[in-house]
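Internal tracking record. Fields below are filled automatically when a chain is submitted to the structure queue. Please do not edit lines marked as system-generated. If the sequence contains nonstandard residues, flag them in the REMARKS field before resubmitting.
Queue: standard
Priority: normal
Entity type: single polypeptide chain
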Amino acid sequence: MSFLQDITPINLLEEKEKFLVDPTTNPQFIYKNAIDTEKLHEYGKPQKKYIDLAKAILEKTYFGRNEQDLYMSKGKQLTQDQVHRRIRSFLEIHQLEDRFSLIWSSSFVSRTTISSDTIKLRLPADFRQEDLLGMLYHEIGTHAIRRINYEQQPWFKKKKKYGFSGYLKTEEGIASLHSLIPHSYKSAFISAIRYLAADASSRGSFVETWEALSPYVEDHNRRWTIVFRQKRGLTDTSRPGGYTKDLVYFEGLVDVWRWLYSQNFALADLYYGKLALEDIPKAVSMYPEFDPLLPSFYTHNFTNYRKQMLEIGEYNLLDQF
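SYSTEM-GENERATED OUTPUT FOLLOWS
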């Protein structure tokens, strides 16, 4: 059983229903197995410089807008059939249609997850036009393609032997950046909200974290999901702390953008596989002639890719960080 399964409570739906009726009582979660609390904190603690940036992004994003405005700006709602066909089409563009199968289920917690050969999608389908493109750029254009390139490396499944470091922050950082490219608003507001949620959770209870997000997330189901992501792994959620994985998405987004900016947004070295920024020189030196598979939104028009990434950096104040 994976750690994410371990920290999914067996009474999750029951506690969610109770909380949404009375959002003043902290949920009490029950787990099938004992939780390794060390793993809850392996992604570190929130850092002030990122907290300040997240607040600045949200202040800019929500000026004259509310949550509904931001979600409606993503285009029209798509049906399950439309989503399914567009995913298959994107896979075909990259000649990956035979590698991946698509599975839909109402039992999935996340809207989309991808493994080495499967894309899992939660029912009911919940994608707007820009949402779907962002998901494709994130899950297939980044995660899947970096995985395929990784399988061709001499260090494939030998990271420890060759001294490669953890890659999650880089992986989720570049994926989060790429998911913003198709959006009219280039704001990283979702990653920023989750970062502030992780900060609030590290200092307070479920209820206090819930209240801290009220200026940004009015929809109660959406807010529950964000707060639960921070508090999963705890039994008594009146306690501070929780699962800090959401820190890596925002920190990674910032750090990877700044690295790409220093490289004039050349992507090839970053796509050598599932690796951290600091391991890129090592990976390139081990296989200098490697020609990585790259996403179509980069190869078809690099000038536009660079323009979009510069806009993301400017909107989110990354060029001033």
